[in-house]
DNA sequence: ATTATTAGCGTCAGAATGACGATAAGGCGT
DNA sequence: ACGCCTTATCGTCATTCTGACGCTAATAAT
C-alpha cells in the first residue's frame, strides 16, 4: 500500500450477481444469454462494470434493478466473494465482486436492458452442464452453497417467500434448497418456537389446501439460535 | 459485462490482510506503521497491490510471506470480503480484497520489507481508538467477527495453536477470541468427542502445569457437527 | 355427511449441553 | 517420603433440543 504510481496494473472491476429464487419445485438462478464474444450464446450471470464514483454494493443493486426490475426492499443482497484469477476473462484482467441475492418467485425478469434475454434456470441444470461463461459456474456453486448455509444459521429462507407466507411454504423452500425432505411437524415446531424467526400476521389462508394456515412475516431475528441444521448423518 | 472499452474506469486493486493471533492473553492483529501520506504514522493492515498476472489468493499469500516470513503451511488463509467505496482512499479509486489469516503465536513479524515496523497489537486497542488508516477498522472488525464465527462452526481454533497443543491451550484460544470463560470439563468433552476435530499424537506434556495433558493435532474435520456455540443467552 | 388434505398440537426416546462433583497424575516445598 | 497445589480427565444429573410419529382440527371437494 505504499505507492500509487502506475507500475501496478489497473484492472477492470465488475459485479456479478447470483440471484436465486425457488420456482416450480426447483432452486433457480437468473442467467442472461451472452450476445457477444467471448462465450457468445452461452449463459452467464448478470453483472456489469462498476462505474466511477459508485460503490460495490451500489453497483450490485443497480445491476439487479436493471436486470430484474424488482423493488429493492423485497430482495436480500449480500456480498458473496471476489474472483480475480488472471485468466478468468480472456480479453483483459477483470476482477469481479460477486453478490448473492435471494428473491421470492418474481413475475419474470424484466429483461429490456442490454442482456438479450434473461431467464430463471434451475441451478442443477446450470451446474450439471458446462454451459456457463467465464468462471460463473464456480461463482454459482459458491452462491448456492452460501444460500444453503444461510438457511441453517439465519431466517433468510423467508427471503424466498412472498411478503406473507405459511409455514408450509417456508418448509418447501428449505426442502428445495437443501434437496431433502423435512418433517412438517418438527419444522413447524422449530420455526414457530424460535424467538423472532416469524411474526404472525393474524390472517390465515387456504391457498395450500386443507386446513387454513396462519400467515407470517419475517421476524426481526438476524441469526438462529440454535441453528436449523441439515442432515444429522 | 458487454463491452470492455475504456468508458468504464479501471481501478487499482489491492489485497489487505487481517492476520490474527493469540498472544499474551489477547487477540492480536498484525499492523504496520504507515510511512507515507495519507495517514502517515497511523497503523494500517498489511497489504499491497495485486500484480499483473497474479491471482488474488496468490497476492495475499505473497504479502503475508513478505510481512511475516512465516511458513505457509501453518497459517489458515481465507478471503474475507471486498471493500470498494469510492472515497475509501483519498488519492484514487482503490478496491481492496481483504483476506483473513489465523496464525499461531509467531516469534515476531520479520519486518525487513517496505513497512517500517510491523507488530502485533490487541484488536481491542485497535478498535477502541480511531488510529487505523483508511477503512481498516471496519475491515478488522469484520475479520474479528468472522474469526469468532469460525470457532463456532469449524475446527479452526487450532489454527491459533502450535502444531501440537493441549485441550487447555485450545480452550484458552476460545476464551480469548470470544472473551468468555468456558467450563474446562464441558469443553474437553465437546472437543474430544466430536469426530475428527482433534487427532491425538500419543505424547503428553506438562507445560501447562498440573497433571500431564495429551497432545493433539488438528483433525481432518472441515466443519463441526453440531457446532460449538457461544453464549446460550 | 363423508372424505381428502393440510395445519398444528402432543408424546416419547435419544442426543447434546450446562453445572458441577470426584478422581488422576504430575510438580514442588518441606 | 509426604502432603499440597495444580491441572487433566471422567462421571452424574437435570435441562433442552431433536427426530420419529400419533392424533385432532379445520377447511374444500364430493
UniProtKB/TrEMBL annotation, chains A, B:
Q: Where is the Nudix hydrolase domain?
A: 9-144
Q: Name one GO molecular function term.
A: hydrolase activity
An example Pfam family from this entry, by short name, is WHD_NrtR
Q: Which InterPro entries match?
A: Nudix_hydrolase, NUDIX_hydrolase-like_dom_sf, NUDIX_hydrolase_CS, NUDIX_hydrolase_dom, WH-like_DNA-bd_sf, WH_DNA-bd_sf, WHD_NrtR
Q: Which UniProt keywords apply?
A: Hydrolase
Q: Does the keyword Hydrolase apply?
A: yes
Q: Which family does it belong to?
A: Belongs to the Nudix hydrolase family.
The UniProt entry, under PANTHER family, shows: ADP-RIBOSE PYROPHOSPHATASE, SLR1690 PROTEIN
What this protein is called in its record is: NUDIX hydrolase
Amino acid at each position: 500500500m505504499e505507492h500509487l504510481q502506475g507500475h501496478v496494473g489497473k484492472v477492470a472491476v465488475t459485479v456479478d450477481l447470483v440471484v436465486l429464487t425457488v420456482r416450480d419445485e426447483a432452486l433457480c438462478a437468473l442467467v442472461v444469454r451472452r450476445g457477444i464474444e467471448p462465450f457468445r450464446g452461452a449463459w452467464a450471470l448478470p453483472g456489469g462494470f462498476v462505474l466511477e464514483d459508485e460503490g460495490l454494493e451500489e453497483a450490485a443493486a443497480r445491476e439487479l434493478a436493471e436486470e430484474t426490475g424488482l423493488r429493492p426492499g423485497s430482495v436480500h443482497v449480500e456480498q458473496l466473494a471476489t474472483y480475480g484469477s488472471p485468466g478468468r476473462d480472456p480479453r483483459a484482467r477483470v476482477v469481479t465482486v460477486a453478490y448473492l441475492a435471494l428473491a421470492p418467485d418474481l413475475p419474470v425478469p424484466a429483461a429490456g436492458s442490454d442482456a438479450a434475454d434473461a431467464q430463471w434456470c434451475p441451478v442443477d441444470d446450470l451446474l450439471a452442464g458446462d454451459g456457463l461463461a467465464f468462471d460463473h459456474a464456480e461463482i454459482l456453486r459458491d452462491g448456492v452453497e452460501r444460500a444453503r448455509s444461510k438457511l441453517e444459521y439465519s431466517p433468510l429462507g423467508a427471503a424466498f417467500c412472498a411478503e406473507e407466507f405459511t409455514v408450509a411454504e417456508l418448509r418447501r423452500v428449505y426442502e428445495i434448497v437443501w434437496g431433502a425432505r423435512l418433517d412438517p411437524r418438527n419444522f413447524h415446531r422449530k420455526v414457530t418456537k424460535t424467538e423472532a424467526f416469524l411474526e404472525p400476521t393474524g390472517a390465515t389462508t387456504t391457498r395450500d389446501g386443507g386446513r387454513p394456515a396462519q400467515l407470517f412475516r419475517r421476524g426481526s431475528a438476524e441469526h438462529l439460535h440454535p441453528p436449523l441444521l441439515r442432515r444429522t448423518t
